[in-house]
Amino acid sequence: VSGLQDAVAAVVGASHVLADPGLKAGYEVDWTGRHRGEARFVVRPADTAEVAEVVRLCVREGVPIVPQGGRTSFVGGGVPRGGEVLVSLARLGGVEPVDEAAGQVTAGAGATLADVQAAARSAGLFFPLDFGARDAATVGGVLATNAGGNRAFRHGMARALVAGLEAVLPDGGVVSRLAGLPKDNAGYDLVQLLAGSEGTLGIITRARLRLTTHGASVATALIGLPSTAAAVELSTALQRRLPGLDAAELLYANGLELVCAHERLRPPLPHSHAVYLLAEAAAPEGALEALAEALDGLLPSPEHAVVADDTATRERLWRYREGHTEAVSARWTPLKLDVALPVAGLAAFVEELGRVLTAEAFLWGHAGDGNLHVNVVGLDREQEAGITRAVLELVAAHGGSIGAEHGIGIAKREWLHLTRGPDDLAAMRAVKAALDPAGLMNPGVLL
Ligand SMILES: Cc1cc2nc3c(=O)[nH]c(=O)nc-3n(C[C@H](O)[C@H](O)[C@H](O)COP(=O)(O)OP(=O)(O)OC[C@H]3O[C@@H](n4cnc5c(N)ncnc54)[C@H](O)[C@@H]3O)c2cc1C
Fold this sequence. Notes:
binds flavin-adenine dinucleotide; seven-stranded antiparallel beta sheet; four-stranded mixed beta sheet
C-alpha cells in the first residue's frame, strides 16, 4: 500500500500527501469532535484531473475513499472510519467570474459558501443559501449534503440552487455538466442524483450555482411568544403577508439564555418568553416598514418584539440564533438529531418530544420549513442510543423525516428504514451498486 501512496504522490506532488499522524490529525475529526477515525493517508489534489487519477489508483488497489470538504457536517460522513484514503477538496477553491447573463457562477468544490456569497454580491447578485458555518462549509460539502439553512423555505435547498456540476465517479470517470442551461433534457439528471448523495456516488469537483437578486433593504425582528404553536402560526401568517420574508427561525428560552451567557449578550427583550421567532424580510426599499406593518395586530404588545434595519442590531439579533450551535458545543458534545416535520404538526411534535426526552435538551431550527435541531446533552452512549431511537420513531410517527438538512452519514444509517420503505431502500442500493460496484466510495455512509 505504500506503493499506492507513492503512486498518488506522483500525481499530486509529495507535499500534498499527508501520512504523518501529526499532519493527518486535523483531517481525521469533525467539527463536533464526536466523529473521528484514522485515514491511511490524506491527499490534497489540485484539480478534477488529479482527483480522477487518485480515484483510479485507489480503485486499482481496492482501497476505500472518503471525500472531505470543510468537516462542518454533523453525521460523520466526511471523516475516516479507519484505513481509507481521505481526499480533501480544500485545494479546489476558486470562484470564476459571475455569468451575469445567466445569473450563475461556477465555483470549485473547495470554495467556501462565504466565497460564493461574496462573488455574487460583487456582481450585484445574491446567493441565497446561508447558514452559520458559511466560512468553512465548502461548495462540494454543501451539495453533497444538500444543505438547507436560513432561507431554504423560500429559495430551496442546495439542490434547487445547483444548475450543473462536475464530478469524478467511483470508477475514476468524469461527468461534466457545467453549461447550466435552464433547458437541457438529455437523459438522466446526474446533477440531482449527485446532490445529496453524501459522497457515496462520486466526488464533486466543481459546481455551477444559480444566483438571484435580493432587496437592498433588509429588516430583522425577534419576537417573544408563549408557545411553539404561536411561533408556527406567526411564521405562517408572515409568509402570507410578506412576499419578501426571507427567514423564520425558531428559538427557545433555555437556548437563548445559554447563548447570552456564552457570548455575554444582554437579553433581546424586556421580558423572557418561552419561544422566539426570528423573522427577516428583504425588499428593494422599505423592508422595516413592511415587516412592522406585517407584524401589526399579530403581537400582544410592542414589547414582545424588537424590529431593526440597522446592521449592528440585525447582526446582534442573528447572534441569538446562530450562536446556538457554538454555545451548546462549547459545554457539551451534544447528541444532535436534525429532523423535519410537516409544519402543521410541528407544535404537536414538540409537545410530545418533551415527554420522550429524559435529559436536558436544546431545540432550535427553521420554523419556515418545519426543520428542528434537537440537541440532547448529558447522556452516556447507551442513553444516547435509547433517546435516538425514541426521537426518530416519534418523528416517523408524525410523518416527518429523520434527516432534514444534515443527511444520514454514519450516525443515522441504522434508522433510515424508519422513513424509507424496503423497495425504496432497494432502489437506492441498486443505484449505489451500479455506480460503485466495489463499494469503495465513502463506504458505510448512508446505506
Ligand atoms: C455552526 C454550524 C451551523 C450549521 N448550520 C447548518 C444549516 O443551517 N443547514 C445545513 O444544511 N447545514 C448546517 N450545518 C452543517 C454543515 O455546515 C453542512 O452540512 C455543510 O454542507 C457541510 O459542508 P462541508 O464542506 O463542511 O462538508 P464535510 O463536513 O466535509 O462533508 C459532509 C459530507 O459531504 C461529503 N463531501 C464533502 N465534500 C464533497 C465533495 N466535494 N464531493 C462529494 N462529497 C463530498 C463528505 O464525504 C460527507 O459525507 C451547520 C454546521 C455548523 C458547524
